[in-house]
Design brief:
The protein is mostly helical. Helix content is about 85%, strand content about 0%. It contains ten helices and no strands. The longest helix is centred in the middle third of the chain and has 42 residues.
Length: about 230
């Protein structure tokens, strides 16, 4: 299954069943993980700012600026990729492996339903969109957490000065990297799930492989991004 095969099936989104699967994937990946992302981001912002003050004596504005650069460009996309791999990739791989074990994929093909259009495309697109949204949400929560720990009662002033800290390039980098990592994690999970052997014992193995290979894919992509940017 090639990447081009997935995206040549985009026209299948005009079908209501495919759109329903897509929306369910966005909901499962994005909405249900939002509170986890908010908590992690708030705590992460406080930790980074506390370390900056303790080790380097950074001023509040300098700490916020450095935190924004680190979170939007590097930490946030990577953290979102790890969260999705741990939470969603294993679930997708297990689901597809279970469908393969029970012959559901063969049944879809007998009815003339393309498995790529119905199973793969909505999951890849759903995780990609959700990953971008979660990346931005996590980056914002990191900034809020850092502002609270750095400024205390003056947190409102720091938040109102966000436009002096953030740049459009940072936001676009955050969205782009988060979407890329989400797409990579979803593709790996789908490939692993569909390639599972038709045995029940393969279902947990597929889940484990999706996590391990997803981690490798995300870190390699992050390395490539760092080298070319």
């Amino acid at each position: 299954m090639a990447l081009t095969t997935v995206f040549t099936s985009l026209l299948e989104l005009r079908r209501p069943p495919v759109r329903r699967v897509l929306m369910k994937q966005v909901y499962f990946t994005g909405n249900e993980a939002a509170y986890i992302v908010l908590l992690i981001g708030f705590a992460l912002g406080g930790i980074v700012v506390s370390q900056l003050h303790d080790q380097y004596g950074q001023s509040r504005e300098a700490a916020q600026r450095l935190l924004a650069m680190l979170s939007f460009r590097e930490i946030t996309p990577l953290m979102v990729g790890l969260i999705l791999i741990a939470r969603s990739s294993s679930a997708v791989a297990s689901e597809l492996a279970s469908m393969r074990v029970h012959g559901e994929i063969r049944s879809l093909m007998r009815f003339g339903i393309d498995p790529v259009a119905y199973l793969i495309l909505p999951r890849v697109l759903g995780m990609t969109v959700a990953s971008a949204l979660l990346g931005f949400l996590l980056a914002v929560s990191v900034q809020v957490g850092g502002a609270v720990f750095a400024s205390g009662a003056d947190v409102s002033y720091q938040l109102l000065q966000a436009d002096r800290v953030l740049t459009p390039g940072m936001v676009l980098t955050c969205l782009g990297k988060s979407a890329l990592f989400g797409m990579a994690a979803s593709l790996v999970a789908c490939v692993v799930g569909l390639r599972a052997q038709p045995y029940v014992t393969e279902i947990p193995k597929a889940s484990s492989r999706a996590v391990v290979r997803g981690l490798v894919a995300v870190f390699l992509l992050d390395l490539v991004w760092a080298l070319v940017s």
